Amino acid sequence: MAMMGGPGMGPTRIRAGQDIKGHQVRPGTLRRVVPYARRYRGRLAILVALTVVHAGLAAVTPLMLKYLIDDGITPRRQDVVLALAGLIVGATLIDAIAMYSQTWVSNRVGQGLLYDLRTTVFTHVQRQSLTFFSRAETGALISRLNSDVIGAQQAVTTLLSQTISTLLTLVLVLGTMFYLSWQLTVVTLVLIPLFLLPSKVIGRRLQRMTRERMTVEAEMASMMGERFNVAGAMLTKLYGRPGRETDKFSGRAAAVRDISTTLMAYGTLLPLSLAVLTGLVTAVVYGGGGLLAIDGALEVGTIVAMMGLLARVFGPINQLANMHVNVMTALVSFDRLFEVLDLEPLVREKPGARALERGPAGAPAPDIEFDGVSFRYPNAEDVSLKSLESIARKGPERRNDAWVLQGVSFRVPAGRMTALVGPSGAGKTTITQLVPRLYDATEGTVRIGGEDVRDLTLDSVLDTVGMVTQDAHLFHDTLRANLLYAKDDASEQELIEACEAARIWDVVSALPDGLDTVVGDRGHRLSGGEKQRVALARLLLKSPPVVVLDEATAHLDSESEAAIQRALRTALSGRTSLVIAHRLSTIREAHQILVVDGGRIRESGTHDELLAADGLYADLYRIQYGREDGANGRAVELHH
Q: Do 175 and 312 touch, CB atoms closer than 8 A?
């Protein structure tokens, strides 16, 4: 197979192809398919019964042709001719009904299985850690939920019904052939192994190339997904790379073209070789049957029936030959799905985990405590799959031994605000991500309300903690849908009050469609400050007792920032809050400031206490952060 795919392919394509070439379906894959089919055993039993009817009629109809010729036409008995012709018509109608019902039941089972697989994989993927999503390619994941799931569904339904139908038909038809002429049947059986040879030789190549095609199609889909969103399109236009992007895409499209062409060639070669063998067997049976008829050993009706039966043998044999190919290529899909399902989430709920109870409205908020917490990001092999990454790793990746946090201990008092400050890369965002269990501490303990977060149910932790990040994400949907994501049963009045508290209602109410305005891909139709305020409104709608803000006011201008500060004073009142701040006005509101540097807490105290201590915070304040602009009465940003 030629690997020349056009420009822009480079070494990545070669490495991926080499990795796939040596990959085989893992042992036990077929056994793992059984539980998915077992859920539909009732319908599968009906499918088997319909298949038995179809297979029986496949053997009986040619036999009736023999009697029609030998017992009706040859002796000129009209009553026999009419009776047998009527029986043939009835059998044909029954067979048509059985085949239609078989297709309908098979489709019902198939669509149910499709639903089960998609929801299982989707649910499992959602449970993966953030590191998984930072490494896995979106197009590759979507491919698993589309083409691979469909391939797996076909493996269980189409192939299952084909297997039963093929084996029953083959047994009944061959038994009928033995009854009519054992000589011709033996000749047919001797030639049958020839039909299995092409499938064995071609099937292995089809399996390997099917997996490779899935990979290159996923790479192409991922590139389209990245370039067709607003951010990707803007980057392409700003850096003037449409020509290079076209070359790169054409390389991946050429790879899909080449592998698909080769697959089609092999897919065509298999039925052609089987057709040649079918012609050979037909000639042998016609010739041998004709000689036996001349000698008087066979009747003419028997030869006609044998040819009808032989035609019904070729179908199952061809299916049997193709079935090996189809099963192996379909098992590739199941294997790729099980690869994802076997990847255990790093953050898991303990058996018997208890819920963190939220008190009634007005009840004290829980505190947050870090006790000797150290953290390093997991290694690639623990969180991702090579087949889900566009740049295939060559050999084992170096282990990640760098500590992001080391021995971090502090307490955020209940109902108070603690600010995290420090240079970029100090570990502030990692600290905030450990609170809602986006990651788990490598060493030490994170507690909410005195409870180790690893002993709590994930739902109760997420219900307790609300978080707004610097890059507020909005779905390509209406403002209403994006807000209801925090509280799906919120009333219209609650939505309006949340928007008013976040100082965004004036903007929303001025839009032609109000809350039903579509915000565009990632909220791109809104400004950065507007998106941030919508995210804050979503947080206020959730109304969690613990709030985490990761530079949530970073994109706001001075006017918007002042409005948000007023909203936050109300929103954070009585709530335990951990805030990464880069504005002096935010820092001064904090009851406690933690200075983070090099993954450690270097200093803690209030703004005035830390300035008086004349340590790292004071140095950052004097050298990096700037000072209060007395003339304008505004806070200068604390730049990192």
A: no
Mean residue pLDDT across the chain:
78
Kindly tell me the burial class for residue 375, based on how many C-beta atoms sit within 10 Å of its own C-beta (0-12, 13-18, 19 or more): buried
Q: What is the pLDDT of residues 203-241, one digit of tens each?
A: 667 767 877 887 788 778 777 777 776 667 666 656 666
Cα dihedral sign for 485, 491, 492, 497? Answer: negative
Note the residue count of the chain.
640
Half-sphere exposure (CA, 13 Å, Cβ side) for 112?
17
Please compute the mean of the pLDDT values over residues 624-635 and round it to a whole number.
Answer: 43
For 237, counting Cβ atoms within 10 Å of its Cβ (0-12 exposed, 13-18 middle, 19+ buried), the class is exposed
Question: Percentage of the chain surpassing pLDDT 90?
Answer: 13
Q: Which DSSP symbol is given to 432?
A: H
- Tell me the longest C-alpha to C-alpha distance in the chain: 122
What is the bridge-based pairing of β-strands 368-375 and 443-448?
A: antiparallel
CA nearest neighbour of 504 among 520, 482, 475, 476: 482
User: How much is the average pLDDT of 56-76?
Assistant: 81
**What pLDDT, on the 0 to 100 scale, is given for residue 216?**
82
Q: To which H or E segment does residue 163 belong? A: helix 158-180
Q: Which residue has the higher pLDDT, 280 or 353?
A: 353
Answer yes or no: are the C-beta atoms of 158 and 113 closer than 8 Å: no
What separation in angstroms does the CA of 19 have from each of 15, 142, 386, 391? 6, 21, 9, 12
Instruction: Quote the CA–CA distance of 548 and 468 in Å, as a whole number.
Output: 7
- Write down all domains in the chain, each with its CATH number in brackets: 29-341 (1.20.1560.10), 413-437+457-625 (3.40.50.300)
> Minimal CA–CA distance to 28: which of 327, 336, 343, 335?
335
Helices in 228-376 by DSSP H: which ranges?
Answer: 230-238, 242-294, 300-341
**For 409, phi and psi rounded to 5 degrees?**
-135, 130
The answer to whether residue 26 scores a pLDDT higher than 90 is no
The Cα–Cα gap between 428 and 597 comes to 9
Q: Is the pLDDT of residue 392 over 80?
A: no
Q: Are strands 546-550 and 465-468 parallel, antiparallel or unpaired?
A: parallel
Say whether pLDDT at 51 is over 70.
Answer: yes
Q: Look up residue 50 and give its two tokens.
A: 């319909």
Closest CA to 207 of 151, 149, 136: 151
Give residues with Cβ within 8 angstroms of 475, minimum separation 6: 481, 482, 485, 519
98-99-103 Cα angle (round to 5): 115
110 backbone dihedrals φ, ψ, rounded to 5°: -60, -45
Instruction: Please give the pLDDT value at position 628.
Output: 43
Residue 456 per-residue DSSP state: B
Contact 225, 139 (CB under 8 A): yes
